[in-house]
Automatic annotation (TrEMBL):
Keywords from the named record: Membrane, Transmembrane, Transmembrane helix
Protein name: Membrane protein
The keyword Magnesium belongs to this UniProt entry's keyword annotation: no
GO terms, biological process: Gram-negative-bacterium-type cell wall biogenesis; peptidoglycan metabolic process
Residue ranges occupied by any DUF218 domain in the UniProt entry: 76-240
Signal peptide stretch: none
Superkingdom as given in the UniProt entry: Bacteria
Segments traversing the membrane: 7-30, 36-60
CC per GO annotation: plasma membrane
């Protein structure tokens, strides 16, 4: 019963509500033999496909499966890319927290540090006026976990993946690092690797923060429109990769 209620709610609450309304309008226009019925119907189908989880899975899987985490990553520095942070929010030992994507990246970075004891470069600045400085928050949290301050280098000027690569290159040159292990979300890694390569940096990719399970299962919930779907995240990465190449 709970699944039936969720299925119904999916079409009565945004964004599914928009699909429902447009579908009803399409039917009305079709019955009135309006020339706009086909166009509106096509827009409705496109909107529906963009909102259902299954579409996001199909788009994200190629990105997330592009690289596999190496069992024994080799390098001389861990490089973690920022992924969002809040400003002034309460946190243990300070203010400001990393977003879900960035927090997952930080956890993986910490676990890799425990295995390798390599120095860490945290790359990420203040993206928006109401967001926190990602690298500074990450450093505070890593230190709280026991990572020595002298093992953490912060790069606080980057606000895009492109500037992550450019500014990290400057830090690496200053500290004479040559073989970075690049840590970021699995869906983000193909674009990040491409941009680092354009800066002449060969990285060892280390994916984390997976959005989708490795195997997709078909069930009614996969066809119900949902907010926060991964389709738009994947499309952003594909567009970014295309733009980076040209």
């Amino acid at each position: 019963m709970a699944y039936i209620i969720k299925f119904i709610y999916g079409f009565l609450l945004p964004p599914g509500l928009f699909v429902t309304v447009l579908a009803l309008l399409s039917v009305i226009l079709f019955r009135k033999k309006s020339k706009w019925a086909i166009l509106l119907g096509a827009v409705t189908c496109l909107m529906y496909l963009s909102f259902i989880p299954l579409t996001g899975i199909l788009l994200v899987h190629p990105l997330e499966n592009h690289y596999q985490p190496p069992e024994k990553p080799k390098g001389d520095v861990l490089v973690m890319l920022g992924g969002g942070a809040t400003l002034g929010t309460p946190d243990l030992g300070g203010k400001g927290q990393l977003s879900g994507n960035a927090a997952n990246r930080l956890l993986t970075t910490f676990r890799l540090y425990q295995k390798t004891h390599l120095p860490i470069i945290l790359s990420g600045g203040k993206v928006y006026p109401d967001s926190g400085v990602e690298a500074e928050i990450g450093k505070r949290q890593l230190m709280a976990l026991g990572v020595p301050a002298n093992k953490i280098i912060t790069e606080t000027k980057s606000i895009t993946t492109k500037t992550n690569a450019q500014n990290t290159k400057k830090v690496m040159e200053a500290y004479r690092f040559k073989r970075p292990i690049l840590i970021t979300s699995a869906f983000h890694l193909p674009r990040a690797v491409l941009l680092f390569q354009k800066e002449g940096i060969r990285v060892t990719p280390y994916p984390t923060d997976y959005l989708e399970s490795r195997r997709a299962a078909l069930y009614p919930g996969q066809f119900v429109p949902a907010s926060g779907g991964t389709a738009f995240t994947a499309l952003k990465e594909y567009v970014g990769m295309f733009a980076s190449r040209f």
